[in-house]
Amino acid sequence: MTPAIEATDLSRTYSGGYEAVAGISLTVPRGEVFALLGTNGAGKTSTVELLEGLAAPTRGTVRVLGHDPYRERAAVRPRIGVMLQEGGFPSDLTVAETVRMWAGCTSGARPAGEALDSVGLTGRERVRVKQLSGGERRRLDLALALLGRPEVLFLDEPTTGLDAEGRRDTWDLVRALRAGGTTVLLTTHYLEEAESLADRLAIMHQGRIVLSGTPAEVTAAQPARIRFTLPADVPAARLPLRLRAADDGGRVEIRTHALQDDLGELLDWARETGTRLGALDARSASLEEAFLDIASRAQETSTPRTPAQEAAVR
């Protein structure tokens, strides 16, 4: 089956010769949630605009549902939904008027009430856009992106401005869309969001993809950690030599790529010596830790951008 999204050697160069997207390739199968992550100015939005067909690539190819989204826009646009970082809707229109206006430009639009109900805006139809909270505006943006029952949905920072309940509701909606066969490509600064929703993800830095895979594959490259405290009369030096530990004011941390084995050895030692391990916490690496490590290593080897270049690619 043709992938929902396919990009090969994709590049985008702005006026002045700056390359914001520097030859990336990615494939998103149908029915998958794919998260595109990156440091500020990494080129995420520039990439998504190419995938949406809002701009032509300087080099490389893009296919969405088998078509070039820029040159074959008429074939692609009715089958996709786009939620931008800011909707920019007329502030004096009511929510209902905004939905009706958008539905008039959308092929096979679903009923307005259904779209608003899906994002929790039922009962807000008569409220003017300018009177909505920031979170409610993001809900409206999402409702309009869903009007055409899209096969592919692009979400650019979909939960910015939402409270915790609104964020969870949006996650549930994305999961329901995926279960119904919709392909979702999202960008987000909330790494917990990507870890919870994405089947696969890619991390960008300065226009390039530096790591990709499932969330589990990305985090597996990072060490797990075991944290605990020792009694005042038990120094960390007494721990088994194989457990290389760092002691920070009584708080001990062990980083390991063999969590089960090392945790077992630690617990055996504690049992044999009668040592109580206070505030014991053992966990695998999080996506946040993997992201920060990647960003740090990439920053050490990268060339700084000028402020103008940073603004161009956000």
TrEMBL record:
A biological process term (GO) from this entry: response to antibiotic
Any GO molecular function: ATP binding
Membrane-related topology note: Peripheral membrane protein
Keyword tags: Antibiotic resistance, ATP-binding, Nucleotide-binding, Transport
Keyword Protein biosynthesis among UniProt keywords: no
Localization of this protein: Cell membrane
Main location: membrane
Transport as UniProt keyword: yes
Stated name of the protein: ABC-2 type transport system ATP-binding protein
Organism: Streptomyces nymphaeiformis
Species lineage: Bacteria, Bacillati, Actinomycetota, Actinomycetes, Kitasatosporales
